[in-house]
Amino acid sequence: MKFLLVFDFDHTIIDENSDTWIVKCAPEKNLPNGLRNSYQPGHWTEYMGRVFVYLGDNGIKEDEMKRTMTTIPFTAGMVDLLGFIGENKELFDCIIVSDSNTVFIDWILKAADFHKVFDEVFTNPAAFSSTGYLTVQNFHAHHCAKCPKNLCKRKVLKEFLDKQLERGVSYTQIVYIGDGGNDLCPVMFLKKDDIAMPRQGYTLEKKISQLAQDLSPVECSVLVWSSGIDIISYLKLLMKE
Question: Catalytic: which of 8, 93, 183, 194?
Fold first, then answer.
């Protein structure tokens, strides 16, 4: 009996968007209008690349970025939840699938000592160049029309499950915990024994509700959460079964 917990990162594990939080490092904590207005839908990673160039051009170094990023608050109850999962790792495999980047997630998890809770993190690869600029790349290429160009979370989840099956690991249930529009694609991949846990009041919950109203509901069960404590309660039920 093993369960797979799949987490989004921004507005799920942390209570903010890591990509917009980094703007606190910019001069006057603001981006020039031209840069701010250069975002094109589906091309967020390229936009963040330009933001990182701007920060680098303004002399913002790695240690200042790291200090800023590690002040992001965790979502309510999330510290308790990650502690609980860490104590019960024999039952739970745990992955992150996020549109943030490897540098930000690594900094935040390590600063709070939660990196050991997660077996794998799937996110856009980032690194500092020899000149000290943060660079970010698309996670992969895919053919899904519903997802942003750099990341289809369904594809990531499917490939992870296939790889685990090759290793002889299959899961009693997948629990998907997220908040955003880009979490809908992987949620629609879940089967009837699985469970989607959308954050209350966020886009994913609204999109799942809309599908139910359109009489094409998702196949899995749905349980809304507002605090990590709600998720702990559900995991405790699973452990009793």
Answer: 8
Whether residue 179 is annotated as binding a ligand: the answer is: yes
DSSP readout, 66-134?
A: HHHHTTPPBPTTHHHHHHHHHHTTTTEEEEEEEEEEHHHHHHHHHHTT-GGG-SEEEEE-EEE-TTS-E
The residue range of the domain holding 47 is 19-70
| 19 belongs to an annotated ligand binding site | yes
- Domain tally, the chain: 2
Q: Assess whether 25 and 142 both reside in one domain.
A: no
Give residue 74's pLDDT.
Answer: 98
Does 10 participate in catalysis according to the annotation? yes
**Catalytic one of 10, 93, 183, 194:** 10
Any idea what the CATH number is for the domain that residue 179 is in? 3.40.50.1000
Q: Is the pLDDT of residue 16 over 90?
A: yes
Same domain (yes/no): 104, 66 = no
Known catalytic membership, residue 214: no
10 labeled binding residue: yes
pLDDT digits (tens, 9 = 90+) for 96-155: 999 999 999 999 999 999 999 999 999 999 999 999 999 999 899 899 988 998 999 999
Claim to verify: residue 12 and residue 23 sit in the same structural domain = no
Q: What is the pLDDT of residues 44-101, one digit of tens each?
A: 999 999 999 999 999 999 999 999 999 999 999 999 999 999 999 999 999 999 999 9
pTM of the full structure:
0.95
> Which of 70, 92, 111 delimits the end of a domain?
70
Those residues with Cβ within 8 angstroms of residue 120's Cβ, 6 or more apart along the chain or in another chain: 95, 96, 160
